UniProtKB/TrEMBL annotation:
Region (Disordered), start-end ranges: 1-54, 338-372
Organism listed in the record: Aureococcus anophagefferens (Harmful bloom alga)
Gene3D superfamilies given in the database record: Vaccinia Virus protein VP39
Compositionally biased region (Basic residues): 35-49
Entry's family note: Belongs to the methyltransferase superfamily. METL family.
Residue stretches making up the Methyltransferase type domain: 130-245
GO molecular function: RNA methyltransferase activity; S-adenosylmethionine-dependent methyltransferase activity
CDD domains (UniProt xref): AdoMet_MTases (cd02440)
Keywords associated with the record: Methyltransferase, Transferase
Pfam families linked to this entry: Methyltransf_12 (PF08242)
Identification of the protein by name: Methyltransferase-like protein
Top-level division of the source organism's lineage: Eukaryota
GO biological process assignments: methylation
Length: 391
């Protein structure tokens, strides 16, 4: 499938074939089993799956609203692995020891800030970034905890996700501190230029000379193909020359993709629809490289992250595969010094957080880069959420 061309004068066409998954092993469907079908129907109901007609009646943002209303703030666990993978944004102490304990944001009790887009002078000496499709803040808060100099503009088009994010203690704490470091609001990252919900942040980015960094963490896979291009265009618009774009998303060949393939939950052009109506896409390295054209971005890193996650109790091994990339906005040397790879961490099991207070940890379970637990339609079979020690 050919993606639309970026309508910026300096952008190269995106020859992106996002069909994906052609190299996947194909499993033949087994004959229908009425008892299994009945069991699956009742599981689907419990897990919030929608019929096709129900899905069609909802916009994508409403489907995500429904998803978050049902799953709550803790479905996506905090992405502490960013300390290891985004060393560019980390202070020296965290670079040296990415697994060190980073305390949650606390209030210093100095007063309550008004929760509006910050003024330019408020951010003058800070490293300012945008988390697009931030959900409930599972990437934003780990970044903020690890680096006191970071300010995160966090946006999602699910109003329910932003409501949950704002209900977190850490959000409230930073609003009652002398220096707030996060502002969250509802917007569509793929909205056309001139969209009113972006006006204030675009003006802020312009006043700052552009944002220092921008993250797409499991977000572009949730968009339709044309929206992906619009989101990338917005990223290019907001970043300063040399600014860092961080991408992590599902990789072609991920177990979840194979399951969705088996169930025929794809449009045949690389977009999958989970039972709850949210979209998914599984990227090859080439597709990600093509999505960020050289006219706009210099490639810094593009690779697979793979992990076999074993649930010993159930005897299930999940082959998870993600794609991770970093790009620098063209036009100047990168804002951040290149950094050597982080010390390797154990690939399985929960890596221990060094220095964490024993009893007051806000993070339960693995901090080893457990990545995105959104198995969606995987969950009914493997029960991975309940028993993998993710949460
Ligand atoms: C898989 S979740 C990831 C959430 C978060 N980045 C994280 O790492 O936990 C995908 C998110 O993208 C958001 N999203 C999907 N389409 C969007 C759009 N057009 N604009 C903004 N957010 C969007 C969804 O509401 C959802 O919160």
């Amino acid at each position: 499938m050919q993606l639309p061309v970026l309508p910026t004068g300096d952008a190269a066409p995106l020859p992106v074939d996002l069909t994906g998954g052609s190299d996947l092993p194909h499993k033949h469907a087994s004959p229908p089993n009425p008892r299994k079908q009945k069991r699956d129907r009742s599981r689907s109901k419990r897990r919030g799956k929608l019929t096709q007609a129900q899905r069609d009646a909802l916009g994508l943002d409403e489907r995500w609203d429904r998803f978050y209303a049902q799953k709550g703030v803790r479905f996506y666990k905090d992405r502490h692995w960013l300390r290891r993978e985004l060393l560019e944004l980390m202070p020296p102490a965290v670079r040296d020891d990415p697994m060190r304990w980073c305390a949650p944001l606390a209030s210093d009790g100095t007063g309550v800030a008004v929760d509006v887009v910050p003024a330019t002078n408020e951010l003058a000496r800070m490293t300012v970034g945008l988390e697009a499709g931030c959900g409930c803040g599972s990437a934003a808060f780990p970044l903020l905890r690890a680096n006191d100099d970071v300010f995160v503009l966090a946006t999602d088009f699910s109003a329910e996700a932003i409501r949950l994010l704002k209900s977190r203690d850490e959000y409230e704490n930073q609003l009652s501190s002398s220096t707030r470091r996060i502002h969250a609001w509802v917007s569509d990252v793929a909205a056309p230029p001139g969209d009113a919900r972006w006006a204030a942040v675009e003006a802020l980015a312009d006043a700052l000379g552009g944002l220092h960094f921008l993250t797409f963490v499991f977000v572009l896979s949730a968009l339709e193909a044309a929206q992906m291009v619009a989101a990338v265009r917005r990223a290019a618009r907001l970043l300063r020359p040399g600014g860092l774009l961080f991408f992590r998303d599902y990789g072609a060949g991920d177990l979840a993709q194979r399951r969705l393939d088996d169930r025929g939950q794809t449009d045949g052009a690389g977009t999958y629809e989970r039972g709850e109506g949210t979209l998914a896409r599984y990227f090859s390295l080439e597709e990600v490289g093509d999505l960020f054209p050289p006219a706009l971005f210099d490639r810094v890193e593009l690779r697979h992250v793979e992990r076999d996650i074993t649930n010993r109790a159930q005897g299930v091994t999940m082959n998870r595969r993600w794609v991770q990339a970093k790009f620098a906005r063209r036009g100047a040397p990168p804002c951040f010094e290149p950094v050597a790879g982080a010390p390797p961490l154990a690939e399985t099991g929960a890596a221990r957080r060094r220095g964490a207070p024993r009893s007051s940890s806000p993070v339960r379970g693995a901090d080893d880069g457990g990545d995105d637990a959104h198995c969606g339609d995987l969950a009914p079979e493997c029960g991975c959420f309940a028993s993998l020690g993710f949460d």
